[in-house]
Amino acid sequence: MYNHIQHYINGQWVDSTENEMIDVINPATEEKIGEISSGTKEDLDKAVQAARDAFPSFSQTTKEERADLLDRIADEYEKRKDKFIEVIMEELGSPVNFTTEVQYPMGLNHFRATAKLLRDFDFTEERENSFIQKDAIGVAGLITPWNFPTNQASTKLASAFAAGSTVVLKPSTETPFAAVLLTEVFEAAGLPKGVFNLVNGTGSTIGDGISSHPDIDFVSFTGSGGVGTKIMENAAQDIKKVSLELGGKSPIVVLDDADVDYAAKTAISHIAGNTGQVCTAGTRAIVPESMHDDFIQAIKNHISEYPVGDPKDKSTFTGPQISEDQWKTVQDYIQTGIDSEATLVTGGTGKPEGLETGYYSKLTVFTNVKPDDTIAQEEIFGPVLSVITYKDLDEAIDVANGTIYGLAGYVVGNDPDNLTKTARSLRSGRIVVNNEPADFTAPFGGFQQSGIGREWGDYGIEEFLEPKTIVGLPS
Ligand code: NAP
Ligand code: MG
């Protein structure tokens, strides 16, 4: 059991003002693995006050001191590798291989990459007759989802600490224990008290409290668009800055000279990885009409290489959905696809055979999907792929861009001119050509309804800074 019924405020674990608890469930077993306190507005007030008190001194530390701190955090994070993997597997139901190869290092990489960039980051700049100084924004409220329990928090925390901001973090109630482990990391790394505060509790109390708190200067949120809207509405009341990392419906554009097996495996890996619960997942495969039949055959040939099953089993590629609610949402979308004119290629509703316990879905692929169909427009956040065909590349790009989102885009193929044309024409914050690995120094964020602002690297640090122009400074 991972019981953790206290909040971390001003460098100490403290009791909540109320005695109400929230159960945390392992979605692979449907069993309770622990509980957390359901924090109150009074708990939040204390945390915000601690962050406010710590701000004057932390914001005046040097960038070298803060870069060293980030490296010490990364060192302490690495020492707890096995613990992070265990916790993320238990609370998210994330398979052991995916947790080890993706979930664990993503959290770590942000601290390392930010430390490196910070050493070369200019907090001052001279222009014609002005001196520009970038000041830490103040107290930041961080609200994170459950799908990458350390990554989503770490990118925000690395940027905040680099800038000299102090924070209050509210992680998802579904996956709160990775944040408890991060707290242990910060203590061991010698983070000054009050710089980092952790308050557990619901979105409707603590999340809402953060976005409407008069002593919070900036809210950095990752999650759904609906909650993003509420946060903006609250933040609008006192002109609080917001950064929103929201959903997506990202395209995979397959060029006509692509290797069809490579293209099909790329598409399957997008819906299978993290059970499709990835904001950047490529969930619309846009393939040439002439390649369609071969592409569908390749999907059928390769889908069994991505087995759904027990997260503890090393051969498992795909685990369960995070919760019963999320499972039902995914099932409803699969039914919507079946009820449409699209053709079901593989998968469908219900649980995979032998996986009656746990919130497991079948890897599901539809073809003959029209660009405007519900399953091609709405974010499902589950293992469901829509295959759409195109006649020429301009049409493919139009279909790819025909969405309210713009978080990511993928291109698979060989011709350098067509790869370049497509990559540069997609209207999204991140384009990946032929499965190139991520660059943790480059910006991450969305166009349109995928969000506002950028995370990762120096762009992430900028979000936690306010530029100040001084003219007439004595030289
Ligand atoms: P969510 O329901 O929006 O929740 C995200 C966080 O917001 C949770 O901590 C949640 O608290 C909290 N919250 C809920 N209501 C709130 C309110 N009224 N005010 C403030 N905070 C509130 O999203 P989710 O289901 O956890 O995550 C899935 C969504 O996140 C998907 O749409 C996905 O695309 C998006 N996402 C985006 C990115 C990105 O980087 N762009 C990354 C990952 C996920 P509770 O603990 O009470 O739920
Ligand atoms: Mg859970």
From TrEMBL:
Superkingdom per UniProt: Bacteria
InterPro entries reported in the protein's UniProt record: Ald_DH/histidinol_DH, Ald_DH_C, Ald_DH_CS_CYS, Ald_DH_CS_GLU, Ald_DH_N, Aldehyde_DH_dom
Active site: E245
Keywords: Oxidoreductase
Documented EC number(s): 1.2.1.3
Gene3D superfamilies linked: Aldehyde Dehydrogenase, Chain A, domain 1, Aldehyde Dehydrogenase, Chain A, domain 2
Annotated catalysed reactions: an aldehyde + NAD(+) + H2O = a carboxylate + NADH + 2 H(+)
UniProt domain Aldehyde dehydrogenase: residue ranges: 13-470
First-tier enzyme category under EC: oxidoreductase
Family, as annotated: Belongs to the aldehyde dehydrogenase family.
Protein's name in the database: aldehyde dehydrogenase (NAD(+))
